[in-house]
Amino acid sequence: MLGTQWGDEGKGKVVDYLASDASMVVRFQGGNNAGHTIVFGGRKFKLHHIPSGILRGGIKAVIASGCVVDPLVLRKEIEELKERGIDTSPLVLSTRAHLILPIHRVMDAQEERLRDSSGGKRVGTTKRGIGPAYSDKASRVGLRVGELLDWERFQRLYLRHFEIKRRVIESYGESVDLDPEATLKELREAREVLLPFIQDHFPLVQDAVKRGENILLEGAQGTFLDIDWGTYPFVTSSSTVAGNACSGTGVGPKDISEIWGVVKAYTTRVGEGPFVTELHDEYGERLRVSGGEFGTTTGRPRRCGWLDMVMVRTAVRLSSIEHLAITKLDVLSGMGTLKVADYYLHNGKKLYYYPDSTYLLEEVEPHYVEMSSWDSTENITTPENLPRELKEYLRLIEKESGARISLISYGPSREETLVLYEGRKM
Q1: pLDDT, average across residues 189-210
Q2: Is 48 designated active site?
Q3: Which entry of 8, 70, 136, 226 is annotated as an active-site residue?
Q4: Which site among 244, 286, 367, 415 is 20 to 30 Å from 146 CA-CA?
Q5: What predicted TM-score, i.e. pTM, was given to this entire model?
């Protein structure tokens, strides 16, 4: 299950809903730069590292090998869930996941500042240290969660790692206002909380596969933040598409039975980068306010625009998506005229797939189909009593994407969800 846009599609709620059929939810990439908000029983939960399946109770929630983990953030997240009466014992933290260390956050912020001051374009990073942590992983100098099991060894590795990073930062003329011994103390305190959850997740996942259990693999962010397929360089540092679900979890390709994509009924983006259907008028502001479009992790206001089927169509093909979950349909209620981009125009040429160049994206014009919005999504109980205009909107998405809409969400709570197609395998 993954996002088809730039993240923030409402994946947390969809994972929470689909997890009722699963024995395990496994997060396959990303760090605490991702945020999921789930509402049930009148309570709101904001998660960053932990898969939202944890709220279902009794379902294994696995932070797998493709993730990067800030132990200080994860400790806080675990403690907050416990304080709110949520059982965290089903959590599994893979020994193979890489650690986000305090020095990574320093590097992240300073690199963004250097890009800005040197006349380059900011990436719009969350400054959570995700990029530097993945860079260390690729450079084969990162520290993994499993290192925390041997504290004496971890201390030696950590202090050596810190010293190397300090010298790198100082070579750019920057200083490091961070005490390695103090951060080591914080990490040790976090370690005590995390130890019960740390294990090699591979045997656990493979045993579940052998037993024929339903396992839900959860991606963070969205397709167009993918390091290879997104709006590079305005992307995240990991692969967000379905192809990485295997590498990031240890589940084999032939063991995946179905692939879901989550589509917000309009388009949003946080941070820098091109945005073809972005609105800078009262419609964009209305979407932002009505949809509560502010980042779960950063609180930053999201940029808002019309639904872009060029993006969704590309995401569907790229990840072989069979089922779509459409979220936030309630936000479009009473909007009057809606617009949906079905293709782009560039020098008179129609583009049906997302271009490979951010420069080209700045030159294209969206071609819009106009539709009427629906009055309300209240009192929806069956597929039959959906408003006529809403049915037409959904039919357009199916036609343009080539995937089946199996679920819709028309509000933040679990109850404001409707299954349109029961023939899915799970």
Answers
A1: 98
A2: no
A3: 8
A4: 244
A5: 0.92
